[in-house]
Amino acid sequence: MTDLAPAPDTADPQSPDTPTGPAEAAPAARNGFDALDLPEALRSAVDALGFTSPSPIQEQAIPSLLEGRDVIGVAQTGTGKTAAFGLPLLAAVDPSVREVQGLVLAPTRELAMQVAEAISSFAASVGGLDVIAVYGGSPYGPQERALSRGAQVVVGTPGRVMDHMRRATLKLDMVRFAVLDEADEMLRMGFAEDVEEILSHSPAARQLALFSATMPPAIRRVATEHMKDPVRVSVSPQSSTVSSVKQSYAVVPFRHRTGALARVLATTEAKAAIVFVRTRAAAEEVGAALIERGLIAASISGDVAQKDRERIVGRLRDGSLQVLVATDVAARGLDVDRIGLVVNFDVPREPEAYVHRIGRTGRAGRSGEAITFIGPHERRALKNIERATKQTLAEAEVPSPRDVSRHRLRTVLAQVPERAQRGRLELYRELIAEFLAEGTMEASELAAVLAAMTVGDDGPGTRPEDEEFTGATLAGGQGPRGGGPKPEHGYTSYRIGVGHSHGARPPSIVGAITGEGGLDGKDVGKISIFGNFALVQIRGELTEDQLARIGRARVGGRALRIAPDTGPRGGGKGPAQRRDGDRSRRRGDRVDAKRKSFGRP
Ligand code: ADP
Ligand code: MG
User: Fold this and answer.
1) Does the C-beta of 82 come closer than 6 Å to ligand 1?
2) Which EC number applies (predicted)?
3) pLDDT of residue 207
4) For residue range 46-87, what is the model confidence (pLDDT) as tens digits?
5) Nearest CA, atom 24, ligand 1
């Protein structure tokens, strides 16, 4: 359970409580997959995965594919397409023949790995069946060895599949079942020719399944050319798996969103969260603002290099990253079980984007939650989403600073019994007794002080994430500032024009600044690196001359272009404006009406 449940009086009729835990699973439960006529081994794999009924796209596509028909499936991400083609693909493969019989093409390395992993899990109880992923950016050796050992199913990106074909390490003449997954994305990425070529090298008699979120003419052409009398199936967004996600919205004026977001994140029980924004600039900005507030966050947008994207997704998966701020494109196909919460920092323009966004949580039959921030005048956009998804969203309220403090202390208090049990408290007991004996304070008062110190605040509303509510002035009154950490006393925040995407790392940045600016290493404070820029804190202020010299220094082949940090995009429009000192001092300008926690009062 999390604190992010929609307001209690507006239960979501669309999300019946998902049964969890083996205790609740009836022994001989009827399973909706029974009707699909899957081979026994696959049928039990489905059970083992805990799929209790086929998703609509699975229900529609699997029977035709099992009959040997070609299928065109139109469905958004998160609708369960992998099993829709993966199960029939495995049914078509003969494990005793050690040749490539199933081929899946996917647009990115990450999707290829995901699909290969899913198909492997479906094939777990089929003996002698190997599934491998082939993709660019990694050595050929291991992929070649796996191919030569006789993997029967290959999942790959078109580019690398072509490479293996050219090297004759991959032969397609025994392929019985081919799949184009996320076909529109593959064509968008310029793989049209490769896809054509790969298909034309596979036997004409093979079966072909094509799945795509949209059906542009280029895909219709592929279909007409390479498919025989295909069966068309499509599912509309409302019937996708997103019904397992508890959805709500909150009215939050734009300038309060960063604070509201920080408080939502500070009170969630979700292990990891994704925050969706519309633009790359917003992704970096919001990511920076969260880091400033002490959250372990990162941002990705469509132009983040694949390598960086994978590293970030890996961190999300292994738990070393709490919050990912992403654009729609960047999060496409992302499947990370840990994501228990999706926050739409703004209302997605298209209902499809909404469905895709919230589909990043509630994966694998787990429960998930999604909250969408809307502006006071955006009710119409909300209505559009409700109409398209055939549901109404519950209005939730953004947690207040009080809620954050309460949540933090409750989390600590919940650990008290266990800590007490571990003992070894004699020393503390003694020191506390001494302190109390001085008679300056009651025990309960001392406990409250220690609580505040443990939670790390000076009482609700005083932490940085509360600034928009309290009107605390920012950055020691040095005027409007950007999305980076607040400089320590005596330090000034500078923005440089290199970031992760240019391969910038702290040592090279420090090197460039000290080398060119004649500074000492200890004059360089905290460095926060973002996608396309970084924020560096420097003791004192740089002279014009130092700025010019450092600005010409290069990191990763790019000039640093250092300048005082005046806010994201040079203090342009957007959330940067929320940092306007005047506004944040205007105490009346709060959203008090929204002060109440989600769910549990
Ligand atoms: P898509 O390819 O359409 O984006 P996926 O195949 O990745 O969707 O499936 C999305 C998630 O739903 C995965 O975590 C998958 O394990 C889960 N899933 C798929 N089918 C079912 C089902 N029938 N019941 C429960 N969970 C399912
Ligand atoms: Mg998929």
Assistant:
1) yes
2) 3.6.4.13
3) 97
4) 988 888 889 889 999 999 999 999 999 998 777 889 999 999
5) 51
Which of 335, 336, 367 for mutating ligand 1's site (highest number of atoms within 8 Å of CB)? 335
Query: Who contacts 439 (Cβ-Cβ below 8 Å, separation ≥6)?
Result: none
pTM above 0.90, yes or no: no
Residue 42, φ and ψ in degrees, nearest 5:
-75, -35
Q: How far is CA 214 from CA 187, 211, 352, 553, in A?
A: 11, 9, 10, 46
Give the integer Cα–Cα distance in Å for 245 and 370.
Answer: 7
Tens-digit pLDDT profile for residues 370-428 = 999 999 888 888 998 888 887 888 999 899 888 998 998 998 999 999 999 999 999 99
* Ligand 1 pocket check for 55: Cβ under 6 Å: yes
pLDDT digits (tens, 9 = 90+) for 85-136: 999 999 999 999 999 999 999 998 889 999 999 999 999 988 889 999 999 8
Ligand 1 binding pocket includes 83 (Cβ within 6 Å): yes
What distance in Å separates the CA atoms of residue 269 and residue 21, rounded to the nearest whole number? 19
Task: Return the DSSP state at 68.
Answer: T
SS3 for 291? helix
Question: What order of strands is seen across the sheet that includes strand 207-212?
Answer: 131-134, 153-156, 102-105, 177-180, 207-212, 71-74, 231-234
Give dist(CA 378, CA 318) in Å, integer: 37
**Using a 6 Å cutoff on CB, does residue 80 contact ligand 1?**
yes
Question: Does position 462 have pLDDT exceeding 80, yes or no?
Answer: no
Q: Is 46 exposed, middle or buried (0-12, 13-18, 19+ CB in 10 A)?
A: buried
pLDDT value of residue 443: 94
CA–CA distance, 88 with 552 (Å, rounded to integer): 59
State if residue 77 touches ligand 1 by the CB under 6 angstroms criterion.
yes
Residue 227 is which amino acid? M
**What 3-state DSSP class applies to 214?**
coil
199/196 Cα distance (integer angstroms): 5
Is any ligand 1 atom within 6 A of the Cβ of residue 335? Answer: yes
Residue type for 468, please?
A: E
Residue 529, beta-bridge partner list: 534
Distance CA 558, CA 555 (A): 5
Q: Is 327 helix (H, G, I), strand (E, B) or coil?
A: coil
Give distance in angstroms: CA of 211 to centre of ligand 1.
14
Round the average pLDDT of the chain to a whole number and report it: 80
Q: Is 495 helix (H, G, I), strand (E, B) or coil?
A: strand
